[in-house]
Structures are given as C-alpha cells and as structure tokens.
C-alpha cells in the first residue's frame, strides 16, 4: 500500500505543477495578445518561445501523470486501457476524491481560458491577414478608370477592378 500512497502523492504534486504551468501559460498568452495588438515583434518572439516551453512542460507533466496512474494500476489490478483519473476515484478516500475533483475542475477552467485567449488571438491574426491581403490586392490590381464621359465633358465615374476585395471595393 505504501507504493500506492506514494504514487498518489506524486500525482497530486504533478497536478499542482500542471495547474501552475497552465497559469503561467495563460499569463504568456495574455502578453502575446498585447504584443500582437501593439505590433511589437521582439517581445512577441520571446513570449512565443515561452509559450512553446510551457506547453512542452505541460505535456511532459501529463506523461508523468499517466506513468503514475499506470503504477497505481498495478496496485489496484485494473486494466490500463480502461483507466483514467476518474476511474481511480472509487478506490480513494473521500478527502483524496475531493482533491482530485478540485484539480480536475481547476484544469478544466484553465483549459477553457487558454482556448478563449487562443481563439481571440487567432481571430485578431486572421483579421490582420485579411486586411493585408486586401491592401496587397489593391496594389497589385488597382482600380481602372472608366473611359466614359459625363454630361459635363469630364471622365465619368470609376469602374472598380473586379480583383478588389469587397472590403475595399467602394468609391469615395
């Protein structure tokens, strides 16, 4: 039983470390958002490296948690393919069950926040790319003036190039 308890303590420590890493990841993602909007490249590159490092650490922590869960399997006698952290709950005392529920809830909330920040950053980047595509399209295929004349003898309205994107395809 000592191996079981030490593996369980290690899982708790790993889950706490994972929560801390997710919190650091969220801070880095918020800085990424700020640097994207301010168009500051050097700090952005640094924060992207930090995000990559934090993500790698989170993946390695998850692997260690799976390894500890595998060790606990041998103590309980469950098959590895049907085992998750939730499967472990009936074999634990109430206090440990509450702890695991708390860790799972925290991780779920942190993952939702990471996804929301990533989605906002993705939308911002896509909007910027669309704007730049529109600008480049305007430069490559500029509007063509119409060869028609108005009643006053001046050239008529402009015929807009069909290559212009809809966002910039308006006469002023």
- The biggest beta sheet, please? 2 strands, antiparallel
Query: Radius of gyration in whole Å, from Cα?
Result: 28 Å
The helix content is: over 70%
What structural class do the secondary elements suggest? mainly alpha
Point out poorly predicted stretches. 168-172
Shape: elongated
Mean pLDDT: 83
Number of strands: 2
- Helical run tally: 4
- Give the strand line-up of the largest sheet: 1-2
SSE layout and pairings?
Layout: H1 2-38, H2 41-76, H3 85-88, H4 94-140, E1 144-145, E2 158-159
Antiparallel strand pairs: 1-2
Verbal overview:
This protein is mainly α and 172 residues long. Helices cover 72% and strands 2% of the residues. It is built from 4 helices and 2 strands; from the N terminus they run ααααββ. It has a two-stranded antiparallel sheet. Helix 1 packs antiparallel against helix 2 and helix 1 packs parallel to helix 4. It is elongated and about 95 Å long. Residues 168-172 have low confidence and may be disordered.
List keywords for this structure.
72% helix, 2 strands, mainly alpha, 172 residues, disordered C terminus
How is this structure best summarized?
This protein is mainly α.
């Amino acid at each position: 039983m000592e191996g079981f308890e030490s593996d369980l303590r290690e899982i708790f420590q790993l889950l706490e470390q994972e929560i801390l890493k997710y919190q650091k990841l969220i801070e880095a993602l918020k800085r990424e958002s700020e640097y994207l909007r301010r168009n500051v490249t050097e700090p952005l590159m640094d924060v992207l490296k930090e995000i990559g490092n934090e993500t790698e650490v989170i993946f390695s922590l998850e692997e260690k948690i799976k390894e500890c869960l595998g060790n606990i399997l041998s103590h309980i006698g469950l098959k590895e393919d049907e085992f998750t952290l939730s499967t472990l709950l009936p074999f634990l005392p109430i206090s440990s069950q509450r702890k695991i529920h708390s860790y799972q809830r925290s991780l779920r909330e942190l993952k939702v926040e990471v996804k929301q920040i990533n989605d906002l950053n993705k939308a911002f980047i896509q909007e910027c790319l669309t704007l730049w595509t529109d600008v480049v399209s305007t430069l490559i295929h500029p509007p063509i003036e119409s060869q028609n004349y108005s009643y006053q003898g001046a050239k008529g309205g402009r015929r807009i190039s069909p290559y212009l994107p809809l966002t910039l395809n308006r006469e002023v």
